[in-house]
Amino acid sequence: MHAATSAGSMASIELGRGGAGAGASGSGNGIGIGRGGPAGTTSKKRLVMIIADPGRESTAAMDWALSHAVVEGDDILLLHVNMPPSGAPGGAAPPRTGSIGSSSGSQLAVFLGGGGSADGEFMETMRAACKARYPRARVHAERVEPATEGREAKAQTILAESQRRGVELLVIGHHRFSAFLRLRSASGTSRPRHDSTAEFLIEHSKCLCVSVQKKGKNAGYLLNTKTHKNYWLLA
Question: Which of 71, 118, 139, 163 has its CA 20 to 30 A from that of 80?
């Protein structure tokens, strides 16, 4: 497991501006996209997609993105996939999008404390937090219907949307499962349960996809990309 201190985090994790698919690079102990110029400069607008769900994992992903990945000049898209409740009929509706209007919303600290989690409100809260951090950024919040059916419907919908929109950086919260929650394999032995949506997107995204898991209040983040596994970034 790699670790980076907060003082050196920006030196080892460079999420700058490259073309879509400008793969991760670096010395082997960091996560990076090639920069078009000195740190903090802008060569063109970049679209950063953050997957928005009403949960702490999604909030942690946004918190990390705003603190370590987004820079002035970026556009931010908060995307939520309207998945049917577990056990509901899986008939997929035709894909459609709906923009969420502006709202004063709550601040990120309130959201982290559990505020703004009611249906519909969490996206407004996340949007307000993004605008509070980057007032000049264009922040869009949209809901989409699943474009397909099956176990990977959410991941495939996110993948299709990211490719259609030309996303350069995709950020998703990594769901935490208890060590006691295990899936039974075909051989009858148990194996750890993983977040299949995040893993699918990391493997198949043409842009850089980063999954984020918050490690305690002040313990930092656990990051995963296609080329970096379990990268621990201290807060």
Answer: 71
pLDDT at 85: 77
Nearest to 97, CA basis, from 44, 35, 49: 49
**What DSSP designation does 69 have?**
I
Residues of the chain with pLDDT > 90, as a percent, come to: 43
Residues 6+ apart with CB under 8 A from 142: 77, 78, 79, 80, 97, 98, 99, 100
What CATH number is associated with residue 56? 3.40.50.620
Domain housing 121: 45-82+94-176+192-215
Token reading at 123: 């996206």
15-43 burial, b for 16+ CB within 10 Å, e for fewer? bbbbebebebeeeeebbbbebeeeeeeee
Higher pLDDT, 169 or 216: 169
Residue 32 is assigned to a structural domain of this protein: no
- The Cα 156–Cα 147 span in angstroms is 8
Q: Is residue 59 part of a domain?
A: yes
Query: Higher-confidence residue: 208 or 230?
Result: 208
Q: Domain tally for the chain?
A: 1
- Rg (C-alpha) for the chain, rounded Å, is 17
Asked if the structure places residue 27 within a domain, the reply is no
- How far is residue 152's CA from residue 139's CA, in Å, rounded to a whole number? 27
Note the pLDDT tens digit of each residue in 68-121.
999 989 999 999 999 887 644 444 343 444 444 333 333 454 444 444 445 568
Average pLDDT over the chain, rounded to whole? 73
3-class secondary structure, 196: helix
